[in-house]
Design brief:
It contains six helices and nine strands; from the N terminus they run βαββαββααβαβαββ. It is α+β, with helices and mostly antiparallel strands. Helix 5 crosses helix 6 (about 170-175).
Length: about 210
Amino acid sequence: MEKHKFQGKTKEEAISSATIALQEVEDNLIIKELETKKGGLFKSSKVEIEVIEKREVVRYIKEYIIKILKDLGFQANVEVKNKETVPTYVIYSDNDSLLIGKNGKNLKALTIIVNQHINKELGKTYKFIIDVNAYKEKHEKQLEVLARRTGREVAHSKIAAKMDSMNSYERRIVHNALSHNKRVYTESEGEEPNRYVVIKPKEDYV
């Protein structure tokens, strides 16, 4: 992953130099300010930035995932989707079930490892998703179906329902699935790592 350095009297001037040199718009660059030197009586101010092209980051993450999988003994291909928004790395391996693990535990661990490495390399948070053979997509749809079914039951019985403990990503799916429901609402309760969603009837409909 190639990192470029540029300087200017201001950060804007340094960024302008970067966009011209790399022939990229600013939105396609990850920019980190390295140093700012204030000018003196006869010296002008100077700002130095580090710039990485987002397409380089996308490629680097794919190669890093492949390397980890190879070191773990997996034979796998990685396909990159949604490159222009939040990149999704879909893994197709010779043992998807083992790579996913029980309730996605192994996939979650892989995501954490890659996240920590990339954030350290960039010096900032970079959003991306790692999936195995559309497991997350299928799991998300299953959670949405469960949330809506439970929501209907709560609306009918007028009794709140406590769902199993979930991580923040899964809870967000449940909240979103029922966010426009006129008869029930959702709240997260409990303490990490055992927080869960409670689906409750709205008083206007009790």
